[in-house]
């Protein structure tokens, strides 16, 4: 079978090599998945460059999100051949390949109504957003949710899940196209962070009260400005640092406005509470069947064009998810 392999670290165009490799055999507790779609993530670029927090031994195949059908089952794995699943392969055996062996604990059944491409782009982003909004922030109906980078994969998931929870959603994004994406997935108010001061607009929209929950995957200056428009008793969710700078959180300001700064480390939650992740998955599948959520797909590429897909993703001009099809 064909698989993209990193033999030496570098930019994806130089580091990735499409190799002919032996088709894996599932070991005890593993299942073999015929990959029908795989999602590209920004951290795949960092993995190729050796700049990610996890550095698998060389050689390795990146790719953390796949969807496909189970074609073989190892001893003790509670799956069945032919079952439609989404899965999170474990490094160094990632999902940018034709067939991947995955621990059964990281395999999640999906309904027939969910297309492969959307299933592949749903796992990390929707799990993270659901965990953040419901487990970490305890978002309530009628509250105001501010979502930064709303046109991105995790941001668009947060908008949809916020609306499904009964919140009023304000979203920030850069440029008219991305603002329209935010409106299309349900945002009540959109703000172009390039030309508008989102803190002022949030306070105007909430009559000075501010946002009850702020979903921030950007950090840096966005985090600093978010503190100016959070409501008394609000929850500021730290999702990531796409802006590059890690901001400080002045404790005197946290005390005076009585808000919480909450870290959202879904990856660790996945390791410590795998049953909780499976329960979230069940909730997400029901929300999909109810028409409350639908993953956004920016573009599909054939698997052989993975370096070009990651190059596009690296420009940060995309919205939603970039998907590879074998």
Automatic annotation (TrEMBL):
It holds the Pfam family ADH_zinc_N. It comes from the Bacteria. The keyword Oxidoreductase applies. Residues 10-324 form the Enoyl reductase (ER) domain. Keywords: Oxidoreductase. GO terms for molecular function: quinone reductase (NADPH) activity. Its EC number is 1.6.5.5. It is an enzyme of class 1 (oxidoreductase). PANTHER family: QUINONE OXIDOREDUCTASE-LIKE PROTEIN 2, SHORT-CHAIN DEHYDROGENASE/REDUCTASE. This is NADPH2:quinone reductase.
